[in-house]
């Protein structure tokens, strides 16, 4: 039960006050199978945790433990994200008025034929329009 995992679902799962039924279902799929992520995923997740640390929302120990827990999951980092940034990803960003970061998740899900695990409303809407399944 593979899934393309985005940073919004990841951070909602990590930050206990943001946990949602959708994030729980996404991580059930991740635990049961494998997650695929674009190469920017680690940067986005680390940045979200770092922002939480700066705002006093979490401690450095919590951040480090969360990253260690995420590292233990079966997550495949896509090697083609960069090569597609100025072509397929940019076209999706234009078509659906997404950031390039969000379009990278959509491009990967479409290319691999996998459902997208995201809490980002614009990204989920674009996936629906593009015919990409979404974990709901």
CATH topology: Rossmann fold
Strand order, biggest sheet?
3-2-1-4
CATH architecture: 3-Layer(aba) Sandwich
Largest sheet: 4 strands, parallel
Shape: globular
N-to-C series of helices and strands = EHHEHHEHHEH
Rg (CA only): 14 Å
Please characterize this protein's 3D structure.
It is a single chain. With 136 residues, the chain is of the alpha/beta class. The protein has one domain: 5'-nuclease (Rossmann fold), CATH 3.40.50. The chain has helices spanning 7-14, 21-32, 41-54, 60-71, 81-96, 100-112, 121-130; strands spanning 3-5, 35-37, 75-77, 116-117. It has a four-stranded parallel beta sheet with strand order 3-2-1-4. The mean pLDDT is 96.
Keywords summarizing the entry:
62% helix; single chain; 136 residues; 4-stranded parallel beta sheet; alpha/beta; globular; 7 helices; 4 strands; Rossmann fold
Summarize the structure.
The chain is α/β, with parallel strands linked by helices. 62% of the residues lie in helices and 8% in strands.
Question: What's the layout of helices and strands?
Answer:
Elements: E1 3-5, H1 7-14, H2 21-32, E2 35-37, H3 41-54, H4 60-71, E3 75-77, H5 81-96, H6 100-112, E4 116-117, H7 121-130
Parallel strand pairs: 1-2, 1-4, 2-3
Helix pairs in contact: 1-2, 1-3, 5-6, 6-7
